[in-house]
Design a protein that fits this description.
- By secondary structure, this protein is an alpha/beta fold.
- It is built from 9 helices and 7 strands, in the order αβαβαβαβαβαβαβαα.
- A 7-stranded parallel sheet has the order 1-2-3-4-5-6-7.
């Protein structure tokens, strides 16, 4: 999430953290995105909130910013810095995530040292201007069977109502923006998504 995704992004982030999100990705992109010192200041505010809740703070694309801030990790896309380059720069003890869309991209990400891959967009999304065509859950299943030790995070148009199908396909987690950032009650939205994740782990009877 970035400054453009919500009217009061820091308030939304705090509510999401209260609702139980387990990781935050700082994604400041787009024609009206913050740059320079304003971007850094906003990122630091987000990082402080994450630290208060003990939640990892991941920087999207900007490896240099991740290093400067001692972020917990970095996430790169196919058009960003190579995963291998990101791993070399950020070190072995940090998290590296990679957006992938094919088996070969997933294989390369794993070989380059990725800790997880993001796959999608699973459903239609309006949060990203550069989103690829809707992919559904099929590729998640394919990649999950080929690389069972590689965590897969579903991305794109995911809500509490359709999250179960993403987990059933083999995803280990979910990445969302709109489902929380545009919700009337971001904390409640986060709780519902967390409940869907817990259902996938422990079953419906154990999570009510």
């Amino acid at each position: 999430m970035g400054s453009m995704n919500a009217e009061k992004p820091l308030s939304v982030l705090e509510d999401a953290l209260k609702g139980g999100v387990t990781c935050f990705q700082f994604r400041e992109k787009g024609p009206r995105a913050l740059v320079g010192m304003e971007k850094r200041a906003f990122a630091e505010s987000c990082q402080r909130l994450c630290r208060q809740f003990g939640v990892p703070f991941i920087v999207n694309d900007d490896v240099d910013l991740a290093l400067e801030m001692d972020a917990d990790g970095v996430h790169v896309g196919q058009d960003d810095a190579e995963a291998r380059f990101a791993r070399e720069k950020i070190g072995a003890d940090k998290i590296v995530g990679v957006s992938v869309h094919t088996v070969e991209e997933a294989r390369r990400a794993m070989m380059d040292g990725a800790d997880y891959v993001g796959m999608g967009p699973v459903y239609q999304t309006s949060s990203k201007d550069d989103a690829k065509p809707v992919a559904g859950t099929t590729m998640i299943t394919v990649v999950g069977k080929l690389f069972p030790d590689l965590p897969i995070v579903g991305i794109g148009g995911i809500t509490a109502e359709n999250a179960d199908a993403v987990f059933e396909a083999g995803a280990s987690g979910l990445s969302v923006i709109s489902a929380i950032a545009t919700a009337m009650d971001p904390e409640l939205a986060a709780r519902r998504l967390r409940k869907a994740a817990l259902r996938s782990m422990y079953g419906r009877r154990a999570v009510r």
